[in-house]
């Protein structure tokens, strides 16, 4: 009897596993969303426990949910004081959460699988490839050249592990002596250096101390190191993969790498110059300081606006023009398959290249001696429209709930969707619970990506065996 029950249990487990395998292979986008949602729930439950808070009391479920999503989605928005609310266990949960979210839950799962099995199966390779290129989650043929091919996924995963450990260790080495100069004891300084480095590389923006960046507000060394960590983290693991192989041979860099690096540098420079001009003379920010400090603060904000999330100045005191520039930078975000959010710099590049091609009367987009197929443009347009629609709808709803100024609400909504973490003060502990839940869901939607969300909600693609008559509507 016991043997029959055991056999029944095994068959049930086997059927469940087989069903999960079929679901994962048939609907990888929906499977990815379910896995990521489950991960958020796990961290919410961990942060709700009394042992995670400094005062030994359970964190309210809405606050725990918001912070768990902000942590796993590497956003940086907070409704509790991150420096004082959590116990050592809670801080450990936060750091583990941002590492898992920054690397990507599917990439992490593939890493663990490779470590245990010492090889990657086809399904693991597909999952990891979809994490490095969202186009992989779509059914049908992916026509554009991939930044990472299936045969290279094992190398990519090793690159992920090595790059995360190496970059964060380098940041710790650079930050640790500076923190010691503040008079901190060695262990406290080491903890803070590790915390800062993790939050910089994962583009999370959480701070370990009550004073935050205030002690380092005029220190070029500390701020530039944070900027460097954020910039590297925002490039994306496929970029590291190519650069480590062909660092001294730029001609062998893929189009994805060239677009990501060039557009990221251009946005960084353009944003810094814009802030320098727009905040000139603003005594509430940095506009009346010496020119060196103005340069430092302007380019620091330009770096953080695309996903970093650290803030030295009160963003609510910036000119409205500067807030609008920040909105645009946040909406664009960083590189694909990176710790950054937004619609991604390559999406912006594709839209710009399409406009240039149309203005010059060309039938196709070209960049760096390569032709870009039209289906990439359709994907870029879809990502942008999905993202803009989500931001607009959430902004309207939060305006009705809170009655706060539109510039502040729009800023924090874009910050949540693009997983940036900057705030004008709209997101705070006294925010209404419905608004916290909506912002948390916005962070989740932004982190899983509009492409993945669209693919998950779309019906199965069907082959169309006929072509309808062509007719051109008037555009413009």
Automatic annotation (TrEMBL):
Q: Which topology term describes how it sits in the membrane?
A: Multi-pass membrane protein
Any idea which GO molecular function terms this record carries? monoatomic cation transmembrane transporter activity
Q: Which organism is it from?
A: Agrococcus carbonis
What is the protein name given in its UniProt record?
Trk-type K+ transport system, membrane component
Give the organism's phylogenetic lineage: Bacteria, Bacillati, Actinomycetota, Actinomycetes, Micrococcales
- Transmembrane ranges, per UniProt, are 27-49, 61-80, 92-117, 156-176, 221-243, 255-278, 328-355, 376-399, 405-426, 438-459
Q: What is its main location?
A: membrane
Q: Which InterPro entries match?
A: Cat_transpt
Keyword annotations for this protein, in alphabetical order, are: Cell membrane, Ion transport, Membrane, Transmembrane, Transmembrane helix, Transport
Gene Ontology CC entries for this record: plasma membrane
Task: State any GO BP term from the record.
Answer: metal ion transport
Q: Where is the signal peptide?
A: none
Query: Is tRNA-binding included in the keywords of this UniProt record?
Result: no
What does the UniProt entry say about where the protein is found? Cell membrane
